[in-house]
Amino acid sequence: MTRSVCIFGDSHAAALRKSIRNFRRMDNTIEIDFWVNAAKKFRRVHFKDGALRPDDEGAAQSFANTNSAGRRFLHVDDYQSIVFVGARVDPNSLLFELAAAISQKPAPITSDYAAACLYERFCGHRPYQYACTMAGYKKADIYWSPISLPTNVGQDVPYGFDVRASTPFLDKMWATFAERVAADGITFIKQDPTTVTRGIFTDQKFGLENDNHHKNSDYGMVVLQQISSVVRR
Asked: How far is CA 43 from each of CA 11, 55, 111, 150, 205, rounded to the nearest angstrom?
């Protein structure tokens, strides 16, 4: 049976929309729909009576324009799975602070502490709070695909940062963070390691010109394939 999935996200979901046609030619096991918006209108959403609801007519129509059924609201039971993509929660500035900390010898923090810091960052944002609330309804499976790491365009890494030495720490940090998110009823979809370079950047081949925050359709395809894999488990 084909599983229905909705992508709820901000401008970072654009990479997925660009690759959806090619994805559908390759994978018919899930039916992916969108309910997305750019930053300003994405912020104008609240959760009430079991649904994400835009605050004004302009935002509602903008969301509806991205959805195959023209939905102006996103009810928790409209789809079997709902995936938050980006959703205005950016962990990257904190991640770079953590990378700087673990570059010190000895590192003044543990991976558990780093995971707790990331979790606190997420909990402080309304979209994550909405995801927790929606998970509590137990009507749809809730997933979170984070904003990607900055595109590698020759930036400096924190002084003393050693990719090989830091990898076990970062892997454990993300695993512990995923466990904390799972306790909220949300499945975390970590950035695919094949897209990562130098430990804390996204490979340049997935980037956009003059924009090291958003990604291209190749990256979108990777995320869609991740989503397909995880929602079918």
From this structure: 12, 9, 31, 22, 30
Strand 186-188 to 74-75 pairing:
unpaired
Q: How many CB atoms lie within 10 A of CB 7?
A: 27
The closest of 60, 25, 31, 64 to 46, measured between CA atoms, is 60
Structure tokens at 138: 């137990």
Residue type, 5: V
Is 186 in a helix, a strand, or coil?
strand
Helix (H, G, I), strand (E, B) or coil at 150: coil
Cα distance between residue 20 and residue 26, in whole Å: 10
Task: Give the tens place of pLDDT for each residue, 171-196.
Answer: 999 999 999 999 999 999 999 999 99
Q: How far apart are CA 208 and CA 202, in angstroms?
A: 11
pLDDT at 42: 87
